[in-house]
Amino acid sequence: MSDDRETLTYELFGTAMRELAQEIADDGFEPDIILSIARGGLFVAGGLGYALGVKNLHVMNVEFYTGVGTTLDMPVMLPPVPNVVDLSDKRVLVADDVADTGKTLKLVHDFCAEHVAEVRSAVIYQKSHSLIDCEYVWKRTDQWIDFPWSVLPPVVSREGQVLDS
């Protein structure tokens, strides 16, 4: 992996949310629910929720990345898993910060597909090797991305958590 990095600031994140929301609105897609993939997708879902006037936000916890460029073999859904009854016959927008490998988005997309009226995905960044081609992408890059919410180390260390030094 190259040392070159894409850097997203909080200010640029605000721009990205407005532009991504405008792309979704211009496409005519009106989600009933925004399903965020925690943790990075929480920020995206909140920004899109406000910009698109959607108050019905749900969270799906998925673990995949364990460090810079290191992952589990496959993404894993962590409890609590959303109840499919809450998603039934809804237009769902899955929100995440990046479609890197696409494995996490594919897991969530497949989870939703059999139960919802329609599922689409929105990300800030998508990489060329992603398994999923998201309907809404703010920017395409193949660099590692420094997000403003994860570029600094945690304030506290938690037992069993992998921390970069």
From TrEMBL:
Keyword field: Glycosyltransferase, Transferase
Q: Which SUPFAM superfamilies match?
A: PRTase-like
A Pfam family annotated for this chain is Pribosyltran
Lineage, top-rank taxon, reads Bacteria
Q: What Gene3D superfamilies would the database entry show?
A: 3.40.50.2020
Q: Cite the Phosphoribosyltransferase domain residue spans from the record.
A: 13-151
- GO MF annotation list: glycosyltransferase activity
Give the PANTHER family listed for this entry. Answer: HYPOXANTHINE PHOSPHORIBOSYLTRANSFERASE (PTHR43363), HYPOXANTHINE-GUANINE PHOSPHORIBOSYLTRANSFERASE (PTHR43363:SF1)
* UniProt protein name: Phosphoribosyltransferase
